[in-house]
Each structure stands twice: as C-alpha cells, then as structure tokens.
C-alpha cells in the first residue's frame, strides 16, 4: 500500500482533550515517579532540578511541538510519517532514520520499563499483605532483594504488565488507547492529590521542599547536566516517536502549541509533586538517605510507610498509582511499532501488538537477569539494565531530539510546517496589531528555540556529558 493510502488509517482521538490525556499519560510515568526522585537524590537536589526545568522549557517544549507537527502532517506511524514528510520536503532519505530510531528506542525502553513496572505490581501485593508494617531498613532491603534475585518472580510480573499493555494497544486508537486514558488519567490525578495531602499532613514536607528547591550550583557536573537533559527527554516522552505517533491521531483543528504547553506543564507538575510526596515520606523517618538510587521507591519508601499512620493502605494506593502511571506510558512505547507493523504487513492490531510484546519480552529478559544471575555481566561497567537505560535516555533520545529539531527547523517543507502551526502566528508577543504578528509571533520564538537554542544546547550538553562520563 502506498503511504498516501495509509494516511489516517488508525483513526483520530475523540477530541483535543483525549490527545492531551493520552500525551500526558505517556509523559507521566516511572520517569516522574521512580526516576526523577532518585536521580535528584543522587545529584544532590535543587541545582539539578533547576537544570531539569531549563531543559524542559528551552529544549523539551519546542522539540515536543516539532514532534507533534511531524506526526499530524504524516498521519501514520513515525516511520511512515517521516517517509511522507521527507518526501514532501524533497530532502535526503537519511532523515527517515528519525522514525526508525524512534520505534527501536521505544521497544528497548519498554523492555526494561516493564520490569520496573512489574516491581510496582509486586509491591501492591506486598503492601496489601501487611508485610511492611513496622519493617526496618534492613528487612526492607532483603524483601526487595528477594524479589529482584528471583528471575521467576520478575518474569511473571513483567509478563503480566506486558499483557496489560497488549490489552490496551490491541484495542486501537479510540477503543483501546483513548478509552484507557480517559479512565486512567482522572484516576491518577485524584490519587496523586490524595497522596500529596497525606504527605503534607503526615510527612516532613518542609525538608522535602528544602531538598528539592535549595540549590548549590557547584555540586553539578557535566555528567549530571547530561542526566538532567536525558531525564527531561525521558519524562516528556520525546525524541523517540511516541508523541509523533500520538500527534498523528490529533484532530486537525487543535492547536499544537497550546496542547503541548498543557502537557509539559502537567508533566513537570507531576515530577515535582512526586518528588515532594516521596521525600516528605522518606524524610519523615529518620536515618533514610535520599540518595538510595533505584531502590528509593522500593526500599526507603516501604520502611517509611511501615511506620506511618494508615501507612499500609496509603502504601497500596501509592503503588497502584505507580502502576497506572507506568501503564499509560508503556502503551505509548508500544504504539509506534504496532502502528508501523499494521501498516507494513497488514497484520491485525492484535497480531501486531502480540508479536511486538513477544519480542520486547525476550529483550526484557536481559534486564531481568541484570538483577540476579547476570549481575556480573557488564559492558563498560553497565549491566544490561543500566546500559539500556543509559543508552536510550542519554543517547538515543537526545540524538532523536536533535535530529527532529534540525529537520523541522531547517529542512521540512515550509508549507507543510506552517499549515500545522498557523495558529501560533496569531499569538503575538507584543499586543500590537496583527500586522506585527508575523514578526513577533510565538511561532517565530519557537523557530528560534528549535533552530538554535535546542540544537546547540543538546550538542553541547551531549558532548560534555559523554566526555565527563568517560573521564570519570
Ligand atoms: N515519559 C515516560 C515516563 O516518564 C517514559 C517514556 C519515554 C514513555 C519515552 C514514552 C516514550 O515514565
């Protein structure tokens, strides 16, 4: 089938709000709840948070807008959307790699993401059973160790989680993805607010604020700045086609600028709220270090829940929240490849997502074994799990983001671009008459961020960060 005949074959979201919920669902996930707090903890707090926000605003938002533009113009899976737009721009076929790289990065991320989400599922059961009540740090660590040292347990949970993703993605854009996010996102929001109130009432909220907002710039290394940028890309789900795929299903009349701002606002808000919740709770129990690494959520937090009022039930709610957030993100990791497989082979959606889930499951075994039988198997100091995480967040996503900003900034056919972004011309930065509009419009600001600020920042941070990682 030609790309033109395929265009739009997956359907469109019910409304602009469904797109916002789906994209927020994709953005808000383990990156915000699990990774953000521990990476901030490892990097000493406030200064890191500041760099993270700068990356979100100056690089993340413009790149995300560019990704939606590509998706909505292409109206296909990222691979075929890129093909369509590259053809229409008479540009080199090498740009099509953006789509391929994205689909591959998505599957690689999903492979380790499903393992961590599986930990979340396990902890729902663990906390419901009451086994963390009154627990101390040592026992919590051994409880976590019991889980991670058992390939069988990890595989069972990983399989269940991937099954949940299959269930949603095989349902298609409207009945699967759209319907799921319309239920999951409001639920997520309510639970998050409830957790925040609990953390303020019962936790050490002041200490959490201090930790997240007080900063000492001197504590930052280039490696930390690279991590902050990688995290910004990761939590916004950009640089790998998830947002491009979702953009392909966006109604034609919705404003890309406005919706992207809403999504990135929600995403940053959730990262901060998650940080406040987790550190308030962790700091409420003395003797727990904020820099516990990946175990922060699965060791430090259960200890704190174990000694807090109503901690057991609140803990269960917390891990349900984690799983819902992970679920609504994981479906967006699977969707780009699924859409492509349907387009390329004519498979049904079910067959396409089933084959991909099987493939991801196998790669995921590498991450499963990184915590037990294969923990000594290291390449350049990384276990398979750490390596996949570093490679995707700090290398694939920034390179994807760089390529997207350069392509949309300099190469893409201007007519294609302008018809997606026309509304931004009407939001003038000055309050002058519309004739000034095109000179001072937000679109011009966006153009600048996309052409110069984002590429220069990504390249500089990337080179310095990699250099720093090699030297240290
Ligand atoms: N943004 C998701 C999170 O923060 C992860 C993700 C990355 C999802 C890339 C899709 C694409 O957990």
Question: Secondary structure elements and their pairing?
Answer:
Layout: H1 3-6, H2 16-27, H3 30-42, H4 46-74, H5 78-88, H6 97-128, H7 137-148, H8 151-169, H9 172-202, H10 205-213, H11 222-236, H12 242-247, H13 256-284, H14 300-307, H15 311-345, H16 349-369, H17 384-411, H18 414-421, H19 434-440, H20 442-471
Helix pairs in contact: 2-9, 2-13, 2-15, 3-11, 3-13, 4-5, 4-10, 4-11, 4-13, 4-17, 4-18, 4-20, 5-6, 6-8, 6-15, 6-16, 6-17, 8-15, 8-16, 9-13, 9-15, 10-13, 11-17, 11-20, 13-14, 14-15, 15-16, 16-17, 17-20
This protein binds phenylalanine.
Task: Summarize the entry for a quick read.
The protein is mainly alpha-helical and 472 residues long. The protein contains 20 helices and no strands. It starts with a helix and ends with a helix.
Write up this protein.
This protein has helices at 3-6, 16-27, 30-42, 46-74, 78-88, 97-128, 137-148, 151-169, 172-202, 205-213, 222-236, 242-247, 256-284, 300-307, 311-345, 349-369, 384-411, 414-421, 434-440, 442-471. It is mostly helical and 472 residues long. It is globular, with a radius of gyration of 22 Å. 54% of the residues are buried. The model is unreliable at 428-436 (pLDDT under 50).
What attributes characterize this protein structure?
mainly alpha; 20 helices
- The proportion of strand residues reads under 5%
Q: Class by helix and strand content?
A: mainly alpha
Average pLDDT for all residues = 90
> Number of DSSP helices?
20
Q: What is the alpha-carbon Rg in Å?
A: 22 Å
